[in-house]
Amino acid sequence: MLGDTSVLVRDARLRAGLTQRELARRAETAQSVVARIELGQTSPTWGTLIRLLSAAGFDLDASLAVRPVFGSHMLDDVARILCLTPEERLAEVANASRFATVARRV
Description:
Layout: H1 5-15, H2 20-27, H3 31-38, H4 46-55, H5 78-82, H6 86-105
């Protein structure tokens, strides 16, 4: 799922100052469900994860991000770059510029 959901749920609960029982009550689930998720014994469904985080007062913001492809020829990246928004293309250029600046210092 999204990294380690057990840490995500536990962090949200602790930051909200809630016990497992209080979070479970707010999310309309059992305390044992929260405990199993936090212990990493089970992975919550997307709906359960959203409900638990919401009950702790948090929203989960998920989006897709294109990862750079390493070890490929420059031209292999053209199709990926053409799929980017103008803002994402500018971010790519900015990242390349920062990299070049740091590389020149070394």
